[in-house]
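Bug #77: duplicate submission created two jobs. Keeping one. Sequence:
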Amino acid sequence: KSSDDWPAGVDKDRLTQQLMTTLTQKFPGVDFNFSQYIEDNVEEAASGVKGENSVKLFGNDLHLLAATAARIRDVMQGVPGITDLAVFNPLGQPTIRIDVDRERASRLGLDPGDINATVQSAIGGQSAGDLYEEGSDRHFPMMVRLAQPFRTDLDSIRRINVGAPDPNGGSGAVPIPLADVATVRLVSGPSFIYREQQERYVPIKFSVRGRDLGSAVLDAQARVARSVTIPGGYHLEWVGEFGNLNDAIQRLKIAVPASLALICVLLFINFGSFIDVLLAVSVIPMALIGGVFALALTGTPFSVSAAIGFVALFGIATMDGIIVLSYYNLHIEQGMDRVSAILHTCRVQMRPVMMTCIVACVGLVPAAVSRGIGSQVQRPLALVVVGGMLLAPVLVLFALPSMILLASRRRYVPTPTEGMGGRETGDPEALL
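Kept job's structure:
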């Protein structure tokens, strides 16, 4: 149903919790998972498992994998925020297992291959030829095997006769019951085996609700490492949304320093002064303060979306710094004293700085206050930009001018004409 038809005060998280509580009470012992069609398909394509996140335990022995995965699941159940927790158990398929007793078989003159061939022919069947359709190239294999009453249960299988060589040297074969040379039993075999990079693994799926993904998974990793001993030769991988988060963070570790370096290069080309570059870049931390406050006040965890918002703030804040610093330098070059130049710059450039910040802020207000399904992707970015742009004008127009007065080395250098008295006016504002 459309979210407009939901009961008042119910959002997606609360609705999910209500459904989980009701279903768990009515169907105890059943594991439930809440997802969306497209999201579910994308996650499965990314991690190979139907679930928002999963822990992949790699190893060879399926029974040991299943037992270790169960211990990991039990530990993760105590982590706050971890929900929809379940193990994709590879075992549970009823399987008839036949183990050949090589010592007994050798005493009767039988090889394990002879016994396996007899069992395969008796139960699975053996091709005795093909039946061709007249006037066509279609053909069908003819399989020969024991009739159903002689292979329906364990006792019937144990009574299957295996032809052994005659101990008296005769040319005939002596029938030996399968139970005399092999152990036949019903076991819980593999129903589905997950493989990746030619390795077996067992996935433990989980979701995170009511807590940010990064801290929840880090908490789970610490508890698993402390409480579960991973067998030698086995290893864990944390995939899904958390894997995508780590990949994005690794890319941001390259993108953010590269963007800052590029901004500094462009500023140096514009100003030609290293001190002016530092002054223009100093507005970036001023803008970041507002973004940090916005995330803290709304209780929004830091995410990749929020990181992109901070990157956007870099450019907007730097543009405000260029506006103020360039106008100040213009006054100095025209002969105005430093204090008058900075005061006049603040008066004249207050409107452009405010307009730059307001335009960037107002455009993202709807996304910052949205609470609909899917808003969790865009809201952190919008909150960072809105919070940063609300506080940036105050800091740019108060803190930056003070820093310019303290650190700027711009000085008025009279031209030869002015030095000879050729300047017509001493009022730099008249020239502006």
